[in-house]
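Deliverable D2.4 — example input (structure tokens):
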């Protein structure tokens, strides 16, 4: 699972190597709370919906089959597809020279 958070790298590294300051803990708590800590997991819509308007990968049901597709989500209208059962953040695009 890829760890992605909206916090400086030195905070993440320190979190695995030693105690965090109160400020660093608050940054990590905010990242967990707004869903930016782990971005490679499917999230059931029954648990929560995205908090930002953006494109996401979704699994939805069509004619009894599960389909994976990209879908726009906005906080007013939801996903463009009906019957979305789970969503996840889009992965980073391929980069020449292999994955990091």
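Example output (designed residues):
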């Amino acid at each position: 699972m890829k760890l992605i958070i909206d916090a400086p790298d030195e905070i993440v590294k320190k979190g695995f190597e030693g105690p965090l300051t109160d400020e660093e803990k608050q940054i990590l708590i905010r990242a967990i709370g707004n869903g930016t800590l782990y971005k490679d997991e499917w999230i059931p819509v029954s648990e929560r919906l995205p908090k930002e308007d953006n494109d996401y990968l979704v699994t939805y049901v069509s004619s009894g089959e599960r389909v994976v597709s990209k879908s726009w989500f906005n906080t007013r209208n939801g996903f463009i597809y009906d019957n979305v059962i789970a969503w996840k953040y889009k992965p980073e695009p391929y980069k020449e020279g292999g994955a990091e």
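The mean pLDDT is 76.
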